[in-house]
Amino acid sequence: MARAATTTDAFNAVAEPRRRQILELLAGGERSVTEIADVVRLDQPSTSKHLRVLREVGAVHVRGQGRLRVYRLDPVALQPMAEWLATLERLWTERFESLDDVLAQLKEEGRHGEDDEARHGDPAR
Amino acid sequence: MEKTTKRATVTLPGDTEILITRHFDAPPALVYRAYTTPELVSRWWPGQRGSMKSCEIDLRVGGTWRYVMEASGGFEVAFHGTYEEISPNARLVTSEVFEGMPGAEGASTTTFEGKDGGTLLSILVTHPTKEMRDAHIDSGMEGGMQEGMDILETLVGEPDV
Question: What residues of B are in contact with residue A94 (Cβ under 8 Å)?
Answer without folding.
Answer: 47-49
